[in-house]
Amino acid sequence: MASVNKVILVGNCGRDPEVRYLPNGQAVANVSIATSSRRKDRNTGETVEDTQWHRVTFYDRLAEIAGEYLKKGRSAYIEGRLKYGKYTDQSGVEKPTVDIVATELQLLGGQGESSGGGSRQGGGSGSYQSRQSQQSRPAQEQQSRPAAPAAAPAAANPGGFEDFDDSIPF
Predict the structure, then answer these.
(1) How many angstroms separate the Cα of 100 from the Cα of each of 4, 11, 56?
(2) Four-CA torsion 19, 24, 9, 11, nearest 10 degrees
(3) CA 25 to chain centre
(4) Which residue intervals of 30-130 are DSSP H helices?
(5) Which residues contact 66 (CB under 8 A, 6 or more apart)?
(6) From CA 125, how far away is CA 133, in angstroms rounded?
(7) CB burial of residue 19 (10 Å; 0-12, 13-18, 19+)
(8) How far apart are the first and last CA of the chain?
(9) Which phi and psi angles does 130 have, rounded to 5°?
């Protein structure tokens, strides 16, 4: 049976990414992303905003890009997968963790939205994918992409729009 482990987040970066390098040279970036939803409280009728914080981990080139362009307050679209783990706190108690391992990052909004970052052409938004995600997409895109229509000479299309009288007044 097939299974799916996919997360899509659209939210704001809560702090600048922390980028570090593992001994093998692999880049790793960690960031917190906030997502918010609004609802009306049944008792008071007031609008209540519910904010959730998500720990997101980027690897390899995607980690370097996140470290360079993703800044505190910047909006981003992130795709990834859930990864469950646990850690032992200072008092020796094991606690569960939930991380999102990012496979795709798309920066949202303009350059003026963030408090830094490099300059990019195209208005400051960009889309980036992990190497694994890029390798799996070309085959899918080739299958779903329709073939280019062959150019046919106008004379080969009798009864088409070429002989249509366009003197209609509307």
Answers:
(1) 14, 13, 5
(2) 0
(3) 24
(4) 60-69
(5) 17, 19, 29, 31, 58, 102, 105
(6) 19
(7) middle
(8) 57
(9) -70, 160
Residue 150, token pair as written in the block: 């062959």
Question: Which residue has 């004379």 as its token pair?
Answer: 155
pLDDT in tens, 64-121: 999 999 999 999 999 999 999 999 999 999 999 999 999 999 999 865 444 443 333 3
Read off the amino acid at residue 94: E
Q: How many CB atoms lie within 10 A of CB 54?
A: 18
Predicted TM-score (pTM) of the model is 0.62
Phi/psi at 108 (nearest 5 deg)? -110, 160
Amino acid found at 69: Y
Rounded CA gap, 71 and 76, in Å?
10
